[in-house]
Design a protein that fits this description.
about 0% strand, cytochrome c-type biogenesis, about 85% helix, about 230 residues, cell inner membrane
Amino acid sequence: MTAPGMLAFSGRLLRRQVVLSLRRPVEIANPLLFFAMVVALFPLGLGPAPATLASFAPGLLWIVALLANLLSADTLFRSDFEDGSLEQLLLAPQPLYTSVLSCVLAQWLVSGLLLALLSPLFAVMLNLQPEAIPVLLLSLLLGTAVLSLVGGIGAALTVGLKRGGMLIALLILPFYMPVLIFGSAAVQAVITGVPATPHLAILAAMLCFALALAPLAMAAGLRISIDA
């Protein structure tokens, strides 16, 4: 039997990962519930003043999105490692680059994409200006994709550890900071009347850079973790 081509194999792997994620709804709901609870509790700490909430909304939404992504990073390769399919993935004739990219894309579809799509609702709760909401949505779409790719590197390096969640945070949190800075700055720029295009362009450049290099780092990290 002829082995499937690279694109066909990546498509099947993407579908498999999405189906497996949908069969574990708790893992999908945890980041979303965390996002919702923190946003709902934030006005209790600062007070219900609309102007105060609006001034903190860009940074708050981005920080919570970053932490929610960090919660789901540890599960990226964990189930495949435990059932042995990760070793088969490393032995497959298809490039590991595209395979890990499919895994990250599946994880982003069920976490980062959902967070970005729900962000306008939470932005309204925090009295964010309506003209800033489209920029928030676009920045989160770009930024959460970068966060998922960077988080995948930490997940690959710690997949063989029983408690790798804290180690992932220590490894990748510094690399999350530029995404947080430019993502929240894009939304803040709209509020202050400054064009947000430069910040969004930098986020897009980060995404291109991460797409090119992060799968290579993930592939190397997985080989190190499996061999160890």
